[in-house]
Design brief:
The protein has about 260 residues and is an alpha/beta fold. The chain has eleven helices and eight strands. It is about 45% helix and about 15% strand. The protein has an eight-stranded parallel β-barrel, surrounded by six helices. It is globular. Bound molecules: 2-phosphoglycolic acid (PGA).
Length: about 260
């Protein structure tokens, strides 16, 4: 089954006003897609609206994504941002369960599941991030962790909603460290996640059509070997998404595969 490649740029807490707009402008012109691909960029909340305007004016197909949100529709949740507010400014994709939300901000699986369900209910696309820490990998727990985070994250999701779910496998030890999973390690993890979705959660057709991105120091130099793996369907890119030529080169690598 051939799956349309999917590449996401997670800008994290980087870039101020003009820098964010300049990067969006540049991405809109350099991220040429020679074949089918989905591309999303996720700026900080502050700049979603203006980055969305830049993309729209440029006629870009790049989608607008949010790095976080709160699962409740409105109310007394000081400092939080709802899905409908994100929708208002053109967001159609949300990240859920990113390693930094889990490990730095302390989000538990229960909250991650609540967010996944709320986002799907709000007609958003969800990129659900999973991945093991170095200690867990050394202890041989990679698949168990990925299965656990995938199972908790997707609890209660319907078969129909799965068309709007992408998994991002992001080994925690590879995020922002310059260390990348080998193509073989990435393939093994992706294959195990897909098998779990097939045998443990849904069925073959959902598992085979579900895209699994790789994240963790993805860059132009390693994107080609990673995307050549049968179960690697794209990338969730942090550092390299802040450099338009690098991000464009990663998108291009998915087109050459
Ligand atoms: P990185 O980040 O590419 O800088 O490792 C990936 C991510 O956090 O999604």
């Amino acid at each position: 089954m051939s799956r349309t490649p999917y590449v996401g740029g997670n800008w994290k807490m980087n870039l101020h006003g003009d820098e964010a707009l300049a990067l969006a402008q540049s991405l809109a012109s350099v991220t040429a897609m020679s074949g089918p691909a989905d591309v999303v960029i996720c700026p900080a909340f502050m700049y979603l609206s203006s980055v969305g305007d830049v993309l729209a004016k440029a006629g870009s197909l790049i989608k607008l994504g949010a790095q976080d949100f709160y699962a409740q529709p409105n109310g007394a949740f000081t400092g939080e941002v709802s899905l409908s507010m994100l929708r208002d400014v053109g967001v159609s994709v949300v990240l859920v369960g990113h390693s930094e939300r889990r490990h730095v901000l302390g989000e538990p699986d229960t909250l991650i599941n609540e967010k996944t369900l709320a986002a799907l209910e709000a007609d958003m696309e969800v990129i659900l991030c999973v991945g093991e820490t170095l200690e867990q990998r050394k202890a041989g727990k990679t698949d168990a962790i990925n299965w656990g985070q995938t199972g908790y994250g997707l609890a209660g999701v319907t078969a129909d909603q799965m068309t709007r779910v992408t998994i991002a496998y992001e080994p925690v030890w590879a995020i922002g460290t310059g260390m990348t999973a080998t193509p073989g390690d990435a393939q093994n993890a992706h294959q195990a996640i897909r098998a779990f979705v097939q045998f443990g959660l849904f069925n073959e057709s959902i598992a085979q059509s579900m895209r699994i991105m790789y994240g963790g120091s993805a860059k132009p130099a390693n994107a080609g070997d990673l995307i050549a793996q049968p179960d690697v369907d794209g990338f969730l890119v942090g550092g390299a998404s802040l450099v338009s030529d690098d991000f464009a080169a990663i998108v291009a690598a998915t087109q050459e595969n």
